[in-house]
Amino acid sequence: MALTFAKVASDDPDNLPLFIVDTDGFDAWLVEQSETTQNWLKATGFKPGLGAVSIIPGDKGSKTAAVVGFGSEKDRKRGRFALAAAAPKLSEGTYTIAQNPDGFDAEVEALGWLLSAYRFDRYKSGAGHEAKLVCPDGIDAEKIEAIAAGEALTRDLINIPANDMGPDELEAATSKLADAHSAQLSVIRGDDLLKENFPLIHTVGRASDRAPRLLDMRWGGTGPKLTLVGKGVCFDTGGLNLKPGSSMGLMKKDMGGAATVLGLAHMIMALKLPLQLRVLIPAVENAVSANAFRPGDILTSRKGLTVEINNTDAEGRLVLADALALASEDDPDQIISMATLTGAARIAVGPDLSPYYAEDDNIAEALFQAGSKVADPLWRMPFWDPYEPMVEPGIADLDNAPAGGFAGSITAALFLRRFATEGRYTHFDIYGWNPSAKPARPKGGVGMGARAILEALPEILDL
């Protein structure tokens, strides 16, 4: 699915002018319009609420312009991508923005327009809307299209059910992306994980007949080193600590971290950012069989730290631990992990915000400001050192599931930090799912945090 702008000049006579009007400025705008436009909007009862649409008619049923509502400032604070609320309601045609209100962020709203055309149509036909937008003046169309394509990739990968998106298929998707950008991909599968010292990845994935693996993609030969690590648990039954059915229903999205770093990787490579990119994805299925790992087992990680297993449903941090240890061996300038890791994060901030942990205050602030700028909101969480004893069980170096239920997202982040390069680690505990349809974000898989990271990279890596 190509989420792209109309490839015509902005002054093409076939383009329809698009007037974007907000609540405060509507009356002043209306008095400056033609008598025909004024009469039509008054006769049809048009109000400039968020997502409202009116097509101004011409002779013999033709269209001369479109007017869309941008709502009030209060309306816009309660959501994102205000223009995207109107885009699907517009009839087929090519539109050029002719007027927009104060506070209109053309880059954000243009991206929202593209994303509003996304449809997951692998199993059921359905096209996106047919209204095309000419890229607004002063906006980098190539950048916005690359971001939209990366987001669409993330959504598609999360939306595909586990029967069609296991470790094999996740590897194939990564290989396709690598080929598209002339990146190099290496893969370690099955028992070779033990030979290459990735014991935690192997242990979590060994119960499935779909072999566990580590995907390692590299791109770029010069510049600072950025390593992205994405949790690729393609389905999570919970293992022997079996999830109830109500908790298992969305576990196709437990590879949302992997899907998000692949979408971000596409953005970085498509825009040819001057950096060295590495993407590490431990791809497994947490299944149940006679050789599944057990509560009470003590495992030794790639780094040599031992881990007591107190819940086999806390498997994501295990596979990430081995991948983070490998990432650190390469001495990157920054490691960023993304994972659908804890329910505690969802309880804390809900499905819209991306909780993140950053060791560097400057990086934390750069990410927060970037997220605000590009409508990809984040919320910083603390690497709270006083909670370190909670992940130290006594019988082993680390506990994968501290008892008590307190600070579940924080203790998971502290666990992961033990395996990453000190001072250069940032972690995102994302949800990866939109529970109800919103402008530019249909119900289903969704990228979280990737656009904020992309925007902040120049500052994070001093590009």
From TrEMBL:
Residues annotated as domain Cytosol aminopeptidase: 311-318
Entry GO CC: cytoplasm
Gene Ontology molecular function, alphabetical: manganese ion binding; metalloaminopeptidase activity
PROSITE patterns according to UniProt: CYTOSOL_AP
Keyword hit for Chaperone: no
CDD domains given in the database record: Peptidase_M17 (cd00433)
Enzyme Commission code: 3.4.11.1
BP GO terms, sorted: proteolysis
UniProt xrefs under InterPro entries: Leucine_aapep/pepB (IPR011356), Macro_dom-like (IPR043472), Peptidase_M17_C (IPR000819), Peptidase_M17_N_1 (IPR048816)
Keyword list, A-Z: Aminopeptidase, Hydrolase, Manganese, Protease
Coiled-coil stretches noted in the UniProt entry, renumbered to this chain: none
PANTHER family: LEUCINE AMINOPEPTIDASE-RELATED, PEPTIDASE B
Family: Belongs to the peptidase M17 family.
Record-given protein name: Cytosol aminopeptidase
